Each structure stands twice: as C-alpha cells, then as structure tokens.
Amino acid sequence: MVDLYLSLNEKFEVTACNQSVKEYLGKAEADILGETIWELFKTTISQKDVLVVLESESEWKTTHVYSYNRIKYIFYMSIGKVFSAKSSAYIVHAHTKKEIDVLLEKKEEIFKEIQRMYEHINGYFWTSNFEGGIETTFYPENIRKVTGYSVKEIEQLPGKLLYLIHKDDVADTIKELNIFSSAGRKFSLVLDYRIVRKDKQIRWIKESLSVQRDINGKIISTAGIAIDITDLKEAQSIMMRSESELKELNAAKDRFINILSHDLRAPFTSILGFSEILLAEPNLPLKEKNEYLNYIYDASQSQLQFINYLLDWSRLKTGSLRIEPQRLKAQGIIYQCISALTGNAIRKNIDILVDIPDDLYIQVDERLLTQVILNILSNAIKFSYENSTIEINASYFNENQVEFVIKDYGLGIKTEDQGKIFSIDKSFTRDGTKGEKGSGFGLALVREIIEKHSGEIWFYSEEGKGTEFHFTFPVPSNTILIVESDEHDRIKYLQAISEAFKNFKILHAENGYEAMNVIYESFPNLIIAGHQMPLMSGIQLIETLKKGDSSLKFPIIIIGDDISDESKKRYQQLGAKSVIEKPFNNDYLVKIISSTLS
Questions:
Q1: What is the pTM of this model?
Q2: Where does residue 160 fall: left (phi above 0), alpha (psi -120 to 50 degrees), or beta otherwise?
C-alpha cells in the first residue's frame, strides 16, 4: 500500500488527500473532504493526545479496524503543523505496519550503508532500542578504529562506551545525558568529550545523538554518530595559543614603541639645549665650552649605541642578520674585548682577572660574540666601584655547552628591577658609579644573540654587593670536510685524517657545489679542498664562501698539482691557511691540519 497523505484545517477536518486515502477508505473524495480524522479512521487516540504529540514533534500510532476490505491495519501516523497567514493547518503522513516490517527486514542492510558513509573518516554510527524494558545496542566493527576495542570487548565493559570517557570528562558528560534523557521534548544532543583508547591514547570525540520518544517523552530509540576530532581540537588549541601570543606581542609592540619614541627623543633635549647655548654665546669661557661639548658628545655617542643595538636586535628578530658560527678560542675573544675596554677599567683602577683554559673552544659568530662580551663587561666596569675587581672565567657547562661567568663587586641590581633588564618593553637604565650613561637596551640584544646560538643567559645580583652574569655558547662540532673529486685521493685523505683526529667527524663532498650545502649545515672546523675540481675550482669555492666579507669564516687548506705562483698568491689573498702541492706524505698533511686547528 502506498503511503497516505492528508491535509487538515485547524479543526482537523480534511481539506485534501491523495489517491491512496480514497482507495484505503473506499470513499469518493467528496465524502472525505470536510470529515475529521476521528470520523474517518475511528482512531483510539484523542484530539488532546494529538495536540500533545504535536508539541513534542513526535509520532503517534493508532489501530484502525474500519476499511473497505475489513482487514485490520496498524498505522504509524506522523502529523506536522503548518502555519499560514490566516490560520493553522496540519499535514498527516501514515504508513502501515506492513511497510514498517519491510523496512525492519532491511534494517541491517540500511545500517551498513549508513556506516559505510563514515568509513572514510575516523568515526562510527551506532543505534539502540528499548523494547519491554530491555535495551538492545548495535555497534559497528569499525568502532575499533576509533576506540581500539572490538565490539565484543565494548559490550563486556561496565557502562560500555561510558567506560571509555576520560575521568575528567565523565561526570559532566553523564550529567548532560541525564538532563537530556529527562527533557521529554528534546530530540537531539551534541557532546564533546575525551576517551581513553585501549592503547592509552587520549582522543577527542564529538558525538551527535538523535532520539525517538513515546507519547510520555520516554526515549524508545537512539542513533548516534561519533567522530574523532582530536586533530581539530589540537588545531584549535594551537590557534588559540597563537592568538594569545599575537595579542601579547601586539601589546608588547605598543609598549616598545612608546618607550622607543621616548628614548629616541630624550637625549636631543640635552644636545639641542647645549648647542643653542654654544651658538648664542660665542664668548663663553673655554672650560664651559668644553664641558658643554662633552655633554653633547656623550649624549650623541650613547644615542648612536642605542640605535646600533636597536638595528642589530631588529635584524636578529627578523632573520635578516645572518649568523655564521665558526670555531673560536674562548680565551682569545675575551682578551680582545678586555683590550678594547682597558681605558675604561684604568680610569676606575679596576683589575680584571681571567681564568679560561687555553684549549677551550666555542662555535659562535665572532662579531656577535664580541658584542655580548663587550656589553656585559662594559656594564661590569660601569657599575663597579673604584679600586675593585672583575672576574671572568669559562668552562664546560655540559658536553654541548661552554659557560661564561662575568662577576663584579659593584652596585648590584635592585630586586624590583631584576625582571626588567632583558626586556625591550620595560624602560630600565641606571647611571654607573661615576655617572656613566647607558642605552638601557644592550642586554635585550645580548639575550637575543645568545638565544640565536641556542644558548642561555641568567644572573645573580644583590644590591650593594655586585652582579654575576652566566651565559652559554655551543661547543664546536669537531668536523673536518674533505672536498675532492678524485675518489682515490679522497679515500686516502679520509683514512689518514680519521686515524690522526679520532675526536673529529670527517665529512666529504665530490665538488664545490655539493660542499656548499654541507658547509652551511655542519659549519666544519676545517675544509680541505682540491685546487682543480669540476664545476667549481678551489679559488671559486673560497670566493663563494667569502661573499664580499673581508675575512674567511671557515679555515681552508688547498691541495693540488702544479699550482701556479699566481694561484698561490690568490689563495693567500683570499685567506687560505695553507696550499699543499702533491706529492706529500700523510704525516705532513696531519702536521698542517694540527697547526691550522690549534
């Protein structure tokens, strides 16, 4: 039998029907129109009951025994309310139990088809029915993909799927389910919760439930769709963190600009003020003129230092400043920096004591390391009392890092100011023990340089007793690169060097182009390259590495046959450490390498 369709007015009188209604009732359309459904179908359900069903948007069932063929049918009727401009109307859809039975026979096939819709995603579809007070639940086999449990294992768990819910989410989830179950007019629910898989992985699940209720609002069947949304949750978490970080960066940017604008303007008050005096009063005594000029000079020098620090910090932040680490002797860099600041130390009669092993090496960008040492050491001198001492020492912090310590016995840093000294958005500057000025920005640059080298910086300070700064830089990788196109020679060099320098990792490349990638990935302590190589000669390799720099960052030894005097001179100009002509014995090569690395 085809489904029955009827439209009703607000009095539940038929205003239209389809052919199936006429065939079923055995009546002409004229005899049906205007009749109420109660008269036509002799239903056992009242108009009041139907109105209750309409409020709950459910279905109602009636037994009809009057028909032209006297066969008893059980009808499942759905009724919906339609609003028009003038009044209310209703649409009735009815199908027989026989048709329902046909659908039930195909239930498993239909269910499998629905389940296949979710196989391409990490999810599953499940149903449950309540009949005679007993709940029957069907889980698909691909539930294992989401939970790690088989259907049989889940059915044996206490609470079944509820057992899998994470302990931190289970109370809220059960509370929502209980509220939903007792809400007789609610037919759908969406839940987000975590489960603990069989393999102990924690996964996020979004579950959408749809239920059917009886006339009393009690749930009689449930269909659920559960989807693993862990990736989505993680993406949302990352996005929220990024949003929070961006807000903080934006706020920091605003604070930084405010401070920057103040710090850039402030020195010009003194510079312009003293300049106006000098211009307006040409007959000032020489002593006063010199005093004012010194003020102008000091303010200009401080401002230039501030701008240089700012530019370097900005270039490091944006990545436009290229860091070129090389193997350096720690002691040598320290003594160079002390030499540059000797005048400052002598004026305050400060003794600088150094305790650094002669064979301690670090892997750093020389220019940037010099900035770090000069900044921290100049601060130590600035805030030290006259006739005091500054101590500098360095040693292995661990197998990958060298730790430097610069300690003074001067002013120290107040507790309330200690959180400001590395910050770019908190203005902090302080005069030295003899009135020395500073930019207040140097330590922010120092931290940026150290962190770009994968190091750390920290300090200990007590007001009136001094400050000691600790910072780390990486230990050299101890790598030698052989660039040689001749396989026989390459193997020969590799064997000799590996035996003599057991603590070094030996890398090799067949030509200059291949070597370029290796160099900027490993930053070797030494490069041994052939003079005549295909694609790129030894001279071209060094020229490429220098790229306009005045110094060669990577020490290079050149090996070749019949190298002309002109080529030797060019290698010398480019900064090659040695040029070795064949033939030579292994001992000689090892001697040259040892001399270059020391």
A1: 0.47
A2: left
